[in-house]
Structures are given as structure tokens and as C-alpha cells.
Amino acid sequence: MWKDWLAFTRKEQYGILVLTILIFILLIVRLSVGIWDEPPQRVEKAEINDLIEFEEVKEPAKSQQDTRQYHFSGNFNPNKVNVTALDEMGFSSYAVVNWIKYLEAGGHFSSLSDVGKVYGIDSIALVQMAPFVHFSISREEPASKSSPSHSRNFRYNQAKQDISHADKPGTDVNHEVVKVEINSATPEDFRQIRGIGEVYSSRIVAYRNLLGGFYSVNQIREVYGISEELFDDLCENFEIEGEPFRKIKINEASLRVLKAHPYISFYQARDIIEYRNNNGAFEEPETLEQLASFDGNELKRILPYFSF
């Protein structure tokens, strides 16, 4: 062995020696790391439970909910409250957290029944808060010289009737009629009409854009949430000029474009594409009558949105 060692040149011997020393040093450093590190601290089970309880908001027991007292010093808008205000009113931490999370996620309360859907809000809370709840989009209350308590009872009775859409107009027949051209009006223009608030104005404009414009005032009936009764109250405020501002080129539109229109189903869009592929372009509106997926009423409704 030593004879073999002596067979290396002087530089090779130094190189092997240095490499051996480096390996030895690395081994010592690696073994020393475990000694120098502090041992992991042991966390008792009780401490873990304390940490979990600190982060988790638990729903109060039923008996606690039944005896909870709420304090309402005046009217409040459930869409414009904060944690402090809700806590001062007496709501549980569980209800407050869910309430605020709903608002931060973009939720909006339009009726008392909507508030009742918040986890942690029970029927007792709804009954006690009803006289004080005031929505930003609400039907106007008739003027009265009665006492504040009478005004609160009025709102309470309306809340019990569960007005599902707070934009519903009042019964005062003397209000001014505001004329709005429905194909060019902005949400702000629609809100000039008594009975239309932020919710309905946004829905009308969104539906109009989805259609490509209105060709009849009666199409407002199709907006989600607008009942026949509400439309009858509002229709005198609507007027229309011209045709829809965006039409579909029936001989060029893709399947995706066609079926995106509210009046065209997937099967109708497919039939249009197949007809074009087999027979060429549509020359006139009457050609659509050959498609089995369109009946007379559907064809009459969609034709104003086609260009040939």
C-alpha cells in the first residue's frame, strides 16, 4: 500500500491529502448541525385547542340565541354596516362574521328575508330588527304626520309581507311620469323612474346589452324580477326609438355567437349552421321557416335581431 502511495507524484499526493481533509471537515459540520439546533418545542394538546378556538368562530348554542337581547338605537341599512355596529346591536360573533363576509363577497340585501338567510340570524332577531331596517333601494313610504312609532310599524308590516324586490314602486298616483328611451338610457336614467333602483336599472341595461337592444317596450317584462304588476306600474315611463343597435349577421355568425343570444337555443343555432353548410346562405327571413326548431312565435321574436 505504501509502495503504491509512493508511486504518486508529489502533487498527486498533496491533492489526495487535501481532498481527504475536506471530506472530513464536511462530515464534522454535518454532524454538528443537529447538536447546535434547538430541539423542537413540544406543544401541548390544550395549547393547540386554544389556538383553534381563537381562529374559529363557533355558532352559539340554541339556548343562548333564544335569550339574546338586541339593541337598535335607530334605522340602519343592512348593506352599509360594519363589525362594530353589528356587535353593538347584539348580534353573535358567528352572525357578524357571516354577515360581513357576505357583503365583502359582493352580496346585497334587498329584503328582510335576505337578511334572514345569513347563518346565525334567527327569527327573533328578524322580528326585533324589522322596524329599524331601511334598505337603500326601497319603495317610498307615504308622507305622514304620525309619530315615529307609527312609521316604524309601517315598515314592520311591509317587512312581514316579504317584499322580495325593494324597487317596487309606491301607490301614490300623483307622482311625476319620467319618460326614458330604453335603448339609449343609462342605469342612472332608469333610476329617475320612481320604483326603479340600482338593482332593476342594472338588470335592464345588462339584458338590453345581451339582446343587442330592444325593439319593443314589452321586452322589459323579460327582465328578471320584474313582475306583470310592476311592469304595468312602470310601462308609462318607457318609450323606444329605432331598432336594436346590434344585429347578428346570420350568414356569417358562428355557433358560439348564435347560441349566446337569449332568444336562440343551442339546437336552433346548430340548425342555422347546418342549413348554411348544406344549402348556402339565407337569402330572406322566410327561409328560416324551413327549420323545424323554430316555431312561428319564436321566429317572430328573433327576426328583428338578424341581418341578411
UniProtKB/TrEMBL annotation:
Note the Gene3D superfamilies from the entry.
AF1531-like domain (1.10.150.280)
SUPFAM superfamilies assigned:
RuvA domain 2-like
Gene Ontology biological-process entries: protein secretion by the type II secretion system
Q: Which UniProt keywords apply?
A: DNA-binding, Membrane, Transmembrane, Transmembrane helix
Q: Where are the transmembrane segments?
A: 14-36
A single MF term (Gene Ontology): DNA binding
- Which GO cellular component terms are attached? type II protein secretion system complex
**Top-rank taxon:** Bacteria
Coiled-coil features, chain-numbered ranges:
none
| Name of one Pfam family that matches | HHH_3
What is the protein named?
A: DNA-binding protein
Lineage runs: Bacteria, Pseudomonadati, Bacteroidota, Bacteroidia, Marinilabiliales
